[in-house]
Amino acid sequence: MEAQYVGSGYHTALFNEFESYSHIAQLEPLIKDIDFACFVGRGLSGTIPASILAYRMNKKLLIVRKEAEKTASHAYSLLEGWLVASYIIVDDFISQGDTMRAILRHVTNAHQNANLPPPIFKAILLTKTESSSFKDLFNDIPIIGA
User: Fold this and answer.
1) 82 CB burial (10 A radius; 0-12, 13-18, 19+)
2) Are 55 and 21 in contact (CB under 8 A)?
3) Which end of the chain has the least Cβ crowding within 10 Å, N or C?
């Protein structure tokens, strides 16, 4: 039997190894000159490309779970991975900004709870499209689009 994709089709490219890796390789030059330590992702659209980029670029990875996942799965923590000094957030696009605000809030709170200096967010990397209407919404964090 040949494998068959199931689902809405929204993440089809992320599950196609060739398309996903070649697309992510095209994103690396956009951030190669940024000095940072860790990629942050949330949900499939952020975590899958953040994981691939972290592996390819030898960076740390931090996953910020959605609040519902904390109670609906085996996960007991909203964050999984590394707290470091500086981050690049990865997602597909910005719609209303809720995902970005949640990531900023949860990572900042985790730094405070661990008595670490405030996190530095170096960029928001969008894998699908640049959302220019949000350029001034996230405290001057550069938004880099594919």
Assistant:
1) middle
2) no
3) N
Q: How far apart are CA 135 and CA 137, in angstroms?
A: 6
Q: What is the mean pLDDT of the chain?
A: 80
Q: Which amino acid is residue 13, in one-letter code?
A: A
Residue 128 burial by Cβ neighbours in a 10 Å radius (0-12, 13-18, 19+): middle
- Residue 21 is which amino acid? Y
Q: What is the pTM of this model?
A: 0.80
- Whole-angstrom Cα distance, residue 44 to residue 112? 27
CA distances in angstroms from 52 to 49, 60, 105, listed in the order given: 5, 11, 24
Q: Where are the domains of the chain?
A: 12-145
What DSSP assignment string belongs to 50-96?
A: HHHHHHHHT-EEEEE--HHHHHHSS---SEEE---SEEEEEES--SS
Classify the phi-psi angles of 132: left when phi > 0, otherwise alpha if psi is within -120 to 50, otherwise beta: alpha
**pLDDT at position 32:** 92
Q: 134: which DSSP letter?
A: G
Instruction: Assess if CATH 3.40.50.300 describes domain 12-145.
Output: no
